[in-house]
Amino acid sequence: MKIVLAYSGGLDTSVAIKWLKETYDAEVIAYCADLGQGEDLEAIKEKALITGASKAYVEDLREEFVRDFIFPMLRANAVYEGYYLMGTSIARPLIAKRQIEIAQAEGAEAVAHGATGKGNDQVRFELTYYALKPDIKVIAPWRHWPFNSRQSLIDYAQSRGIDVPVTKEKPYSMDQNIFHISYEGGVLEDPWAEPPEDMYTMMVPPEKAPDEPTYVEIEYKEGDPVSVNGEQLSPFQLLDKLNRIAGENGIGRVDIVENRYVGIKSRGVYETPGGTVLHIAHRAVESITLDREALHLRDSLIPRYAEAVYYGYWYSPEREALQSLIDRVSRDVTGTARLKLYKGNCTVVGRKSPVSLYNPELATFEAEEVYDQKDAEGFIKLNALRLKAQRNRR
Fold first, then answer.
1. Annotated catalytic residue: which of 8, 12, 89, 353?
2. How many domains does the chain divide into?
3. Is 234 a catalytic residue?
4. Over the stretch 188-238, which tens digit does the pLDDT of each residue have?
5. Which of 14, 173, 182, 266 is catalytic?
6. Which stretches within 52-192 are classed as H helix?
7. Residue 46: inside a domain
């Protein structure tokens, strides 16, 4: 039996290689996706082989990740429960898609992942597997092996000589890619406890950010960012640059208790520096380029779209249908936003567009000859008819 394992080099998947081999008498092929997490992927590949994998793939998916997954999600202004920009959620369908492609190329009967039976990732991986290859066999070690906690995994790993980056003193669960880093577990399981001061990775604490503001200009074409401060960049390069600029200014951290799809409330801390800036900049360009009703219709669909991404339905007909509408609306989102970054705050200070709907002659409070203010009287009276009828009935 051949199994393709989504492998990160961390605690869960390192243990999974040995456990899968022993339990299923299987050949395990490790697969690691480079999504810009900044790790030594060649070392991870070597570790997978040392741990027992028969073969190890390391795939550079950085440009595809930003272009085909992050940017479409940003065009939708998708935010889960008001705060979470879904850096982990959006990575899973791409990882799983490539995993299925490798399984087909290798003739593997099964795929496996290291997600726990309590979390969202198991759902995201497996919904993608089944959507792309309905007959695939899925093995989720956390739902079957005898280990019932991260601590028991640490003990097992140490007993088998598996090198893992998690210690008993600091058992954080971290997931990083070019879009964000997440922190869960350990002291963070107490929702009243403030995160440790040294728990910053992609950004500096706002109080340690520069005392002078940084200004940045982001140009958009048809809904996607294409340049920063006049420099044309590829999707990955653009996000990478904004991560550095926003991170230096302490921008992008949220601390939330969210509702997992499986029904559990979970506390997570997230850093999304460049993504936070892009989200705000996109809104700024939309504000002068989108028709009111088109904008309001799209906004009414954001919670549904965000749920589809968060729950793992990237390859569902409803997400694809929503994306079609969002992309049609986004064709008009062309222009530039200017933002001021200062000690954790990102403020829009300017926006312009060659296709702007903003008309200063209409908007002005000064004298003009475009708008006849007397027309407003009939407009108000017509819209008040139903309100009058309600009051008269009472």
1. 12
2. 1
3. no
4. 999 999 999 899 999 999 999 999 999 999 999 999 999 999 999 999 999
5. 173
6. 62-65, 71-75, 91-106, 121-132, 150-159
7. yes
